[in-house]
Amino acid sequence: MKSWPLIVTILLLQVCISCVRRHSDQTTESETSQLIQPADWTIRQITEDITLQQVQTELFDSKQSISVLIIRPEAGVRIGINDTANVLVTTSELCRQMNAVAGVNASFFDMTNGGAVDFVRVNGEVKHNAQEKHERSNAALAISDREIKILGRDSSDTHWEEHIEAEDVIIAGPLIMKDGIAANLRKNAFNNNRHPRTFVATRTDGAILLVVVDGRNAHAAGMSLNELFLLARSLNCKDVMNLDGGGSSTMYVRGEGDNGIVNYPSDNKQFDHYGERPVANVIYIADVPTEIAATP
Predict the structure, then answer these.
(1) What is residue 22's three-state secondary structure?
(2) Crossing angle for the helix pair 4-35 and 225-234, to the nearest 10 degrees
(3) Is 4 exposed, middle or buried (0-12, 13-18, 19+ CB in 10 A)?
(4) pLDDT confidence tier of residue 3, bands split at 50, 70 and 90
(5) 268, 214 in Cβ contact below 8 A?
(6) How many Cβ atoms sit within 10 Å of the Cβ of residue 157?
(7) 67, 72, 73, 77: CA torsion to nearest 10
(8) Which of 185, 227, 201 has the alpha carbon at shortest distance from 283?
(9) Torsion of CA 43, 207, 105, 48, to 10 degrees
(10) DSSP E strand stretches across the chain
(11) Which of 8, 63, 77, 286 has a CA between 20 and 30 Å from the CA of residue 113?
(12) Pairing between strand 147-152 and 197-203?
């Protein structure tokens, strides 16, 4: 009988902790829902099909700097991958090579020897096979006919990436969201710590989003992947795939600024537009020639 007060106390503590957690979650979701208010964002129409939205704000009890490229549904643009084979080149240069309107860095790569460390296919040709199976590389971006799909790893198929039916395929991750439902994110330093982040997403209305979150600076803390999920949900995303981040996180928009960089890459440890890190590949958005766009 003497143990009952202790049991009651433990139960009350569990209830209190649960309430605190629910309140914390509600506060976080409330904060992120405020992020989509138009008044908070600087909005620029880059082309008829592409919009750039940027904001510097307080979020998750930290300073955040976020850049979002929105490609409208059924846009008359070409979405592609430019891969460097075994050398490293800046995001802005890789985009300029394709005469791209805009683009972001893409998959993980070997910083010493160059080249992507995961599977990459461009225009039907395999450019890289996986050097090793990374736990975080559990998502695929598949591009065909100006449409993209974000896929989760098929754990029953050890060569799942090779069997994806698409002209362009790039493997990265982790998968953040599929069909509006949060993916299972493991607890580890890569996922839990705040870093600059880049992700690609499809929205519920069919739009495609390329997003960069700055970090490693007093003006921009970066995000954990759970915080990235909340940001993606506030942007009405449906499927979301994390890409390479850290010093690689870079967004290019043709004609913007001195060098086309619109975010604040962190590799030079300055909050400016000149800290690009050379990377292995990019996801780019380019104009479609009029005669192709007009083809039924």
Answers:
(1) helix
(2) 50
(3) exposed
(4) low
(5) no
(6) 10
(7) -100
(8) 201
(9) -50
(10) 42-45, 50-59, 62-71, 77-83, 102-105, 120-122, 125-128, 139-144, 147-152, 168-172, 175-178, 181-182, 197-203, 208-213, 237-242, 251-253, 281-287
(11) 286
(12) unpaired
Q: Cα separation of 172 and 138, whole Å?
A: 6
Q: Between the CA of residue 219 and those of 43, 190, 196, 272, what are the distances in Å?
A: 20, 21, 12, 11
**Tokens of residue 117, six digits:** 């460390």
Determine the length of the chain: 296
Reading the block at residue 270, the tokens are 């300055």
| Contacts (Cβ under 8 Å, ≥6 apart) of 109 | 88, 115, 116, 117, 244, 279, 280, 281
Q: What is the pLDDT of residue 145?
A: 81
User: Around 253, how many Cα atoms within 13 Å sit in the side-chain half-sphere?
Assistant: 23
The model's pTM is 0.88
